[in-house]
Design a protein that fits this description.
The chain has about 180 residues and is α+β, with helices and mostly antiparallel strands. The protein has four helices and seven strands; from the N terminus they run H-E-E-E-E-E-E-E-H-H-H. Strand 6 and strand 7 (about 125-130) form a beta hairpin. The structure holds nickel (II) ion.
């Protein structure tokens, strides 16, 4: 289920169909999982992102990494994460490493609880608002096969039509070669 090699994994872009595949639960917590999470953290840093989910590197797994504001050097891996809505809503600009060129105002729950497993399989719970709560919701969306492009309104699609078109063309070209 987990890849033998991780150094060749790269971030894939919308509309790659692998982004639509819902992540499977992770049952084995071994060295391969640790290596995979480390590679995802590396890719997140290289891209100056604040979160990265397994489907974004083509793996349909319930795994994402995120870095918390205030502890930017300490990214965390979340396995089999479940969110609890704790109230409020906040609308703010949101982008995605798998959809470069697209930034849209997205409505999210303001305060969020998360229950997840760490890389050893231990359960932990956290609570967050602001940016981190937004990152969790964005990454859990990825783990369920949802990308911000899927959340766009008709008007947002029109506003971003050039970026959408460019991503589609890049995907077609990559598939032809
Ligand atoms: Ni994303």
């Amino acid at each position: 289920m987990l890849p033998e090699r991780v150094d060749n994994l790269e971030i894939i872009r919308w509309p790659d169909p692998r982004l639509k595949a819902p992540g499977k639960r992770i049952e084995v917590f071994d060295e391969r999982l640790k290596a995979l999470a480390d590679r995802m953290i590396e890719l997140m840093h290289e891209s100056n992102g604040v979160g990265l989910a397994a489907p974004q590197i083509g793996l349909n797994l319930q795994l994402f990494v995120a870095r918390a504001p205030g502890q930017m050097d300490e990214p965390l891996a979340y396995v089999n994460a479940e969110l609890t809505e704790r109230g409020g809503t906040i609308t703010s600009e949101e982008g995605c490493l798998s959809a470069p060129g697209i930034t849209i105002k997205t409505k999210r729950v303001g305060k969020i609880g998360i229950r997840a497993q760490d890389l050893k399989g231990e359960y932990f719970e956290q609570e967050a608002d602001g940016l981190l709560a937004r990152v969790w919701q964005h990454e859990v969306d990825h783990c369920n096969g949802v990308v911000i492009v899927d959340r766009m309104s008709r008007l947002q699609r029109i506003t971003c039509r050039r970026a959408i078109q460019e991503l589609k063309e890049a995907h077609e070209q990559a598939n032809q070669s």
